[in-house]
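Reopening this ticket.

The earlier resolution said the output was attached, but the attachment link was broken on my side. Pasting everything inline this time so it's all in one place.
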Amino acid sequence: MNVIFVGRKTGRVKQLDLRHPLVVTAALTLVFGIVGGAFSIGVGLGVHHHAANPLDQLGGWSKDLLRQKAQIEDVRRALQEKVNALAMRVGQMNANVIRLDALGKRLTRMAKLDDGEFDFGNPPALGGETADGQPAQIPNLTAMVDD
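Inline output:
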């Protein structure tokens, strides 16, 4: 089998016999050079961008999970401390309100005001309703942390 080359400017004709051992050797050398070069580039890139062993990844994920669990526990602990402090503060405020009610009763007796003027026997009016008449809801803080 022959390949014929024709020059554009000169019009000269050259033939290449593909069965000649030198041409076959050169073609095979070129093909193997391209394939070998692509293989060596792939191996080099694979070494530089080596994916971690899946077991190593699993160990890393386990460490991350343990760290995140510890962070969640820290947040829960801090939240519980804040809730405890808030409950203590509400208790102090309740004690002060009871004292103020007792003082109010005593002042109304001392001032000899009518019983209907200030009624300390009934609880005061409560607000906290929404526009549709439903009581305001306080979200569960623990559920918020869990979410």
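Reporter confirms the inline version is readable. The two ends are 76 Å apart (CA to CA). The first helix runs from residue 21 to 48.
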